[in-house]
Design brief:
By secondary structure, the protein is α/β, with parallel strands linked by helices. The chain has 12 helices and 16 strands. Helix 4 runs parallel beside helix 5. The two termini are about 35 Å apart. The protein binds ligand AOF and zinc ion.
């Protein structure tokens, strides 16, 4: 039988409840790396003594910085000898920017390693086998929180695309703007502050050309501390972004990354569009071609290779409809403001042509409902926790080792 109970007691004297509690703790501290660790995974590690008392803990704070295990080992010093390391992700077995954690764990004299998620990175994986070969007890104990933590990383590794989250604010009756485009502000200040915080944690912020032309957004994180500066991306197949749009101007001296414009491939552009592309490139924009007309998936694959693990989508409706159609939408944060707009032609969050049967429309899972000031915040997810490479959608494929970080 492979219940967590029997798995855990087979190889370690620690009670399964202690192991679960240590994994819960490891997940909680790993989350402190949100915004810093990406495009690496968030990882947490807890060291336990033979009685199950916590010795130390560590998490992966910054991409390029020490891994979680190394932080926990450092904090433990000599006390690591004979201890159990509980990690949310299988320890790495490679020397990338840091590592390998397998060797660091061996050198410390750790007696047992418990990990929750196998590392899907072909370049880094193999730590469990390496440790086992060297005589360390190694246990794989699945844990939902740890699997959740690794989702963006797993998606990038298995499906070769970033984790894509959409957010929008709407009225009770589903309007995101009046017919004249007015949308500022539907949601309250607490909701908007949360959005700025998220903008400061994701690798990229994506919006459609309609939103750029209508709202002229900056797509920057303001009034919050930022873990990273997101790349700004406009889905703009015909290169209609105005040269003086706010997304084209830097608001921070240290932001040297150009705005990315997703445009039609050169052979699908007319000469006027070509000229606009040239002008945008001259103003510092980076143009990424969409490939086959309209498909966004190739551009998302390009971004994943470019080191983008998380994308926040901020409108508009056409872009959102397209992402849904291409099975690229992983999550949504929906802020519902306390208004009934009651208008036949008010704007909606997503546009497109729906299938003619409800059963054919993908159903999301409701993960959480919270209150933010006078708004309700609904958190939905379309992607299953245990997604396999074959679930990646028509364009999904696994990343080859050469493309991995
Ligand atoms: C671990 N512990 O805390 C993390 C791991 O470039 P590097 O050296 O930072 O290696 C990144 C890879 O290491 C990453 O793609 C993933 O496979 C693994 N991440 N492994 O043992 C950690 N963050
Ligand atoms: Zn490592």
């Amino acid at each position: 039988m492979s219940t967590p109970h029997s798995i855990a007691t087979e190889g370690t004297p620690l009670h399964p409840n202690l192991i679960r509690a240590a994994l819960d703790r490891a997940v909680r501290i790993a989350l402190r790396g949100h915004g810093g660790a990406e495009p690496n995974p968030m990882v947490g590690c807890v060291l336990l003594d033979p009685h199950g008392e916590q010795i130390s803990e560590g998490f992966h704070r910054q991409c390029g910085g020490p891994h979680a295990e190394v932080e926990a080992l450092r904090a433990a010093g000599d006390r690591a000898r004979g201890a159990t390391a509980v990690v949310t992700l299988e320890p790495c077995n490679h020397r990338g920017r840091t590592g390998p954690c397998s060797e660091a764990l061996l050198a410390s004299g750790i007696a047992c390693v418990i990990y929750a998620v196998a590392d899907p990175n072909p370049l880094a994986q193999g730590g469990a086998a390496r440790l086992r070969d060297a005589g360390v007890r190694v246990l794989h104990v699945p844990h939902a929180g740890a699997a959740e933590l690794a989702l963006p990383f797993l998606t990038r590794m298995r499906c070769a695309r970033p984790w894509i989250t959409a957010k929008w604010a709407q009225s009770i009756d589903g309007a995101v703007a009046l017919a004249n485009g007015e949308s500022q502000w539907l949601s309250g200040t607490r909701s908007r502050k949360m959005v700025h915080r998220e903008r400061g944690r994701v690798d990229a912020i994506l919006t459609g050309i309609g939103t750029v032309l209508e709202d002229d957004p900056q797509l920057t994180a303001r009034g919050v501390s930022r873990a990273r500066i997101a790349q700004r991306i406009v889905y703009d197949p015909d290169a209609r972004t105005p040269l003086d749009a706010k997304v084209m101007t830097k608001d921070r001296e240290h932001d040297d990354r150009p705005t990315t414009i997703l445009v039609h491939a050169a052979n699908e552009r007319d000469s006027a569009t070509d000229a606009r592309c040239t002008a945008l490139a001259a103003r510092g924009a980076r143009l990424v071609e969409l490939g086959q007309r309209g498909l966004i998936a190739p551009a998302m694959q390009f971004l994943a290779k470019d080191g983008v693990a998380t994308v926040l989508v901020e409108g508009g409706g056409g872009l959102l409809g397209r992402l849904l159609q291409e099975h690229l939408l992983d999550e949504a944060w929906v802020f519902v403001a306390p208004l009934l707009v009651a208008d036949d032609v008010a704007r909606r969050a997503a546009r497109g042509h729906a299938p003619e049967a409800l059963a054919a429309i993908p159903r999301a899972r409701l993960l959480a409902v919270r209150q933010r000031g006078s708004d309700a915040l609904l958190h939905y997810r379309w992607t299953p926790l245990d997604r396999k490479p074959s679930d990646a959608g028509s364009t999904g494929r696994s990343m080859s080792p050469r493309e991995s970080p």
